[in-house]
Amino acid sequence: MQSRTILRDLEAAGIGFAASVPCKQLAGVIAGLATSPRIRHLPATREDEGMGLCAGAFLGGLRPVMVMQNTGLGVCVNVLATLIQFYRLPLPMLISYRGEVGEAVACQAEMAIHTKPLLAQLHVPTYHFHHPRDVAELPGILAHVFTISKPVAVLMDAGFWRGDQP
Q1: Of 91, 143, 158, 165, which has the fewest beta carbons less than 10 angstroms from its beta carbon?
Q2: How far is residue 102 CA from its own chain's centroid?
C-alpha cells in the first residue's frame, strides 16, 4: 500500500526521473518506478552515481528523486555536499532506514547510529516515517523540496513498511 501511494505522490509532484539502488524495503517503490509511464527510472550501481544522474536530470528539465538505503549515505556525502547542495539542486531522497532494533544485518545497525547525525551535519532537512499513515506527509514534503531548492531526506523505517504489498 505504501509503495503505491509513494509512486502516486511522486507522479503527482511532477517527478520525471528516478535513480535507485537496490533495497529490500524499497523494492515495491523501485518496481513501480520501473513500470511508471511518467517517470524515467535508471538503476544506479552506487548512491553517488545516482545523485549525479539526478543532478543531470534536473539540469535537463526533469524533477528527480533518489531512492536508496541509509547505508549508502556514507558513499554519497561528497557529491551531496559539493554538487547537490553547492548548486542548490532540489533532490528528494527516499531512504530506507535500516539498523534499528530487530535488524538482522549487523553493519546496518552501525550505519543507523550515524545516519541522522550525518544528515544534520550536512544541514539536510530530514523527515522520519515510522508508521504507514506518515505517507500522508509526502506530498507536502515533495512540494517543499522544490520550493527551497535543497536536498531533503525522508527516512522510512521498518515500522513504516509493515504490511506493504508491492
Answers
A1: 165
A2: 22
At 25 the pLDDT is 93
One-letter amino acid of 82: T
Residue whose cell numbers read 552515481: 49
The pLDDT tens digits of the residues spanning 64-90 come to: 999 999 999 999 999 999 999 999 999
**Domain ranges across the chain:** 2-159
Query: Which three three-digit cell numbers place residue 54?
Result: 539526478
Our CA dihedral for 122, 123, 124, 128, rounded to 10 degrees, sits at 110
At the topology level, CATH places domain 2-159 in Rossmann fold (3.40.50)
Interhelix angle 27-35/2-12, nearest 10 degrees: 40
- Residue type present at position 87: Y
Residue 99 pLDDT level (bands cut at 50, 70, 90): confident
- How far is it, in rounded angstroms, from Cα 133 to Cα 96? 16
pTM above 0.85, yes or no: yes
**Cα distance between residue 162 and residue 41, in whole Å:** 25
Residue 153: all three cell numbers together: 531526506
